[in-house]
């Protein structure tokens, strides 16, 4: 997997606008590989950055510069005209509309009638500025799409370990003797972590345990595959804990030194039956026992956790169950171990770190903490509101009622929120929807004002990758037409809507310096100090470098011990009828998230199988579905049509669709039942009916 293999090398895609070869960071996944433009190749090559030390890139990274000159780019502001169509407008007119509308909404309905959607595809400085704008206007209604992918992981790890992030570094993970990959497919979703760090360790003898209802590119490297029933991670993980206890595989030295509540947990565990847990998860008991043994016998076992675990209405509880296993195995606070959430977009970690969340300020300081609010007020000159705001899905459900205005920066919420038909209606209920975007996405179709923004390749700033490294992006081109850089746009709106002076610091360097003064995690960092390398949080003031392995001596809250906590299973929200299948969703190697960028890539051409629904042969036969036929997938929330990919890779009773495409838009089918703690929706378990489409397949024979 490198630039040379994946690139066409024919310069067919060479940009028509000047692109410099400044070193920057890949805009796609949270691995954070270094990319730079190669005129010879007409797209990206890797440079020896902190993560991709050999300059390797996956196909997505290679295609990164396709966005720069794409003909679909938004290049002028648009406003909704009298006839309901979006028409071109000047920046002055677009900004005047936003200013007057937001002022009117705030005066008539209060500041909490406004909402702000930040983006994990934007820089730390942009996200920081947007959350500051929301708070300057008097609301904590600000969130970002991390809510939809790993908020449950952050909640559970924050609660138990005091920090919601990878406990280890990508670089030390090859020292693991065993990898437990739960609900993730890093071979396709975080390719360079997998190909450069995990796969070589597995080739050298480390054991790979893959917990996933589907066989995918990661499973091909696995020694153990537990193809569980979606939604039943808790009984599976509890049963694995029981195997460790039964077979003398608990790390008693670690438990004595670092764990609280072992005896109570052991008592509770005595009521767990391994066979019953395996039956609930629908995996063979012997396979579960073998996987647990492999994890428990390893000196160093590293767990990866992904959206297969987090995107359930029991997502927080799922991660709690995984943390119990890690504590029993003594796999915390040492190299080649830990619990390691694989974060989605390139700045999903950073968007949360800098406070683009409704309940916390920069550095995860609770908005309810008066001391933290006062410290921020000393820097900002105003105090942020004390009541937590609404989360992403909650905000969309308030559109037209409690919320009348929304400012969406770089998120395609019409495609990415669950229950998309409902969201489409809700978007139209707003008095003012502002969308700051690069392409005409599904969300832009609902906007009242569209602000043409800069792509990743046109902006400077910092992003924080999945193992807590803050790196610098550098602009390699100017925004096209009248498009502007996101930070400038947010600053101008801030200037218009708030008291003079709140947003006068507008350069990425100045905003970064301000962030280090209000975010304890970033306290010792400097823009210049990052240079071409990275600085990792926590980075205490006065330290030479950031902390690599978390929790070596103490946990994030300063305590020496973390507590073992019994976790009870929670059934998924959708009841599955006798004729239904359980639909689960995921990413593919060639595309990313809602596909706003990758769908338009010249290199990442769409293959037939990419928009196909995977069906097990038994399920297909029961429904009379042939491979390649068009099927209708439906439930009470919506309906899509997709091509059947009949394959034993997916477990019987389960179907799989990606979430990259506007058609089929899988989120028409997903539900908005929320995890009670993290408010993450249950994307990974939707009951659906599947039948042959009589219209699409009519060929005279049917
Ligand atoms: Fe970009 Fe992630 Fe691929 Fe690296 S692994 S090139 S960061 S998409």
Summarize the structure.
The protein is of the alpha/beta class. The protein is built from 24 helices and 28 strands.
Instruction: Give the second-level CATH assignment, the architecture of the largest domain.
Output: 3-Layer(aba) Sandwich
Count, helices: 24
Strand tally, please?
A: 28
Q: Briefly note the structural class of the backbone.
A: alpha/beta
Terminal CA distance: 45 Å
**For the record, what CATH class of the largest domain applies?**
Alpha Beta
Which key terms come to mind for this protein?
702 residues; alpha/beta; Rossmann fold; Dimethylsulfoxide Reductase, domain 2; Barwin-like endoglucanases; 3 domains; seven-stranded mixed beta sheet; six-stranded mixed beta sheet; 24 helices; 28 strands; 30% helix; disordered N terminus; binds iron/sulfur cluster
Q: What do these coordinates show?
A:
This protein has a seven-stranded mixed beta sheet. Helix 9 runs parallel beside helix 15 (315-328). The longest helix is centred in the N-terminal third of the chain and has 19 residues, at 91-109. The chain is α/β, with parallel strands linked by helices. It has three domains: 78-143 and 357-536, 3-Layer(aba) Sandwich (Rossmann fold), CATH 3.40.50; 151-341, Dimethylsulfoxide Reductase, domain 2 (3-Layer(aba) Sandwich); 581-692, Barwin-like endoglucanases. Helices cover 30% and strands 16% of the residues. Iron/sulfur cluster is lined by residues 26, 28-29, 31-33, 57-58, 60-61, 190-192.
């Amino acid at each position: 997997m490198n630039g040379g293999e994946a690139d066409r090398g024919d310069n067919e895609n060479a940009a028509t606008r000047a692109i410099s070869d400044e070193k920057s960071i890949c805009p796609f996944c949270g691995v954070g590989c270094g990319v730079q433009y190669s005129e010879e190749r007409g797209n990206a090559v890797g440079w020896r950055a902190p993560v991709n030390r050999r300059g390797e890139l996956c196909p997505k990274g290679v295609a990164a510069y396709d966005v720069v000159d794409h003909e679909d780019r938004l290049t002028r502001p648009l406003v909704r005209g009298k006839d309901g169509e979006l028409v071109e407008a000047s920046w002055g007119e677009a900004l005047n509309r936003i200013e007057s509308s937001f002022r009117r909404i705030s005066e008539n309905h209060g500041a909490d009638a406004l909402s702000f959607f930040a983006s994990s595809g934007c820089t730390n400085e942009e996200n920081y500025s947007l959350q500051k704008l929301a708070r300057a206007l008097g609301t904590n209604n600000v969130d970002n799409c991390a809510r939809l992918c790993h908020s449950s992981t952050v909640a559970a790890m924050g609660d138990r370990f005091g920090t919601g992030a990878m406990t280890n570094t990508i670089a030390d993970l090859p020292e693991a003797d065993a990898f437990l990959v739960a609900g993730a497919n890093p071979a396709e979703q975080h390719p360079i972590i997998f190909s450069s760090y995990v796969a070589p360790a597995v080739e050298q003898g480390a054991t790979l345990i893959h917990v996933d209802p589907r066989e995918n590119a990661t499973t091909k490297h696995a020694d153990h595959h537990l193809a569980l029933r979606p939604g039943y991670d808790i009984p599976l993980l509890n049963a694995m804990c029981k195997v460790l206890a039964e077979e003398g595989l608990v790390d008693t030295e670690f438990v004595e030194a670092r764990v609280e509540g072992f005896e109570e947990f052991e008592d509770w565990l005595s009521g767990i039956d391994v066979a019953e847990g395996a039956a609930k998860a629908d995996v063979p008991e012997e396979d579960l026992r073998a996987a647990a043994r492999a994890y428990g016998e390893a000196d160093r076992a590293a767990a990866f956790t992904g959206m297969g675990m987090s995107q359930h209405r029991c997502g927080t509880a799922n991660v709690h169950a995984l943390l119990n296993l890690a504590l029993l195995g003594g796999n915390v606070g040492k190299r080649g171990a830990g619990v390691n959430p694989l974060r989605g977009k390139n700045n999903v970690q950073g968007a949360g770190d800098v406070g683009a969340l409704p309940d916390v300020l920069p550095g995860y300081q609770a908005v309810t903490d008066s001391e933290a609010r006062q410290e921020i007020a000393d820097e900002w000159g105003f105090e942020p509101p004390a009541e937590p705001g609404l989360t992403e899905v909650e905000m969309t459900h308030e559109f037209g009622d409690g919320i009348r205005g929304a400012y969406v920066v770089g998120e395609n919420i019409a495609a990415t929120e669950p229950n998309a038909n409902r969201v489409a209606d809700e978007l139209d209920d707003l008095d003012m929807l502002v969308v700051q975007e690069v392409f005409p996405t599904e969300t832009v179709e609902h906007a009242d004002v569209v602000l043409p923004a800069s792509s990743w390749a046109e902006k400077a700033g910092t992003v924080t990758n999945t193992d807590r490294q803050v790196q610098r992006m550098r602009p390699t081109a100017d925004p096209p037409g009248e498009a502007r850089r996101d930070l400038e746009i947010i600053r101008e709106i801030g200037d218009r809507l708030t008291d003079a002076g709140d947003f006068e610091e507008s350069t990425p360097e100045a905003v970064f310096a301000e962030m280090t003064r209000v975010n304890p995690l970033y306290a010792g960092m400097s823009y210049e100090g990052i240079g071409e390398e990275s600085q990792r949080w926590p980075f205490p003031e006065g330290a030479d470098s950031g902390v690599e392995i978390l929790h070596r001596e103490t946990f994030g809250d300063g305590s020496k011990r973390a507590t073992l906590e019994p976790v009870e299973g929670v059934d998924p929200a959708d009841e599955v009828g006798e004729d239904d299948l359980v639909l689960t969703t995921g990413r593919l190697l060639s595309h990313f998230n809602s596909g706003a960028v990758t769908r338009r890539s010249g290199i990442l051409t769409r293959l037939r199988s990419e928009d196909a629904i995977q069906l097990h042969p038994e399920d297909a036969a029961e429904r009379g579905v042939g491979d390649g036929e068009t099927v209708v997938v439906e439930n009470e929330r919506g309906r899509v049509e997709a091509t059947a990919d009949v394959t034993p890779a997916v477990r019987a009773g389960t179907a799989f669709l990606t979430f990259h495409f506007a058609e089929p838009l899988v989120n028409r089918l997903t539900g908005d039942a929320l995890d009670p703690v993290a408010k993450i929706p249950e994307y990974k378990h939707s009951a659906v009916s599947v039948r042959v489409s009589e219209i699409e397949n009519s060929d005279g024979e049917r």
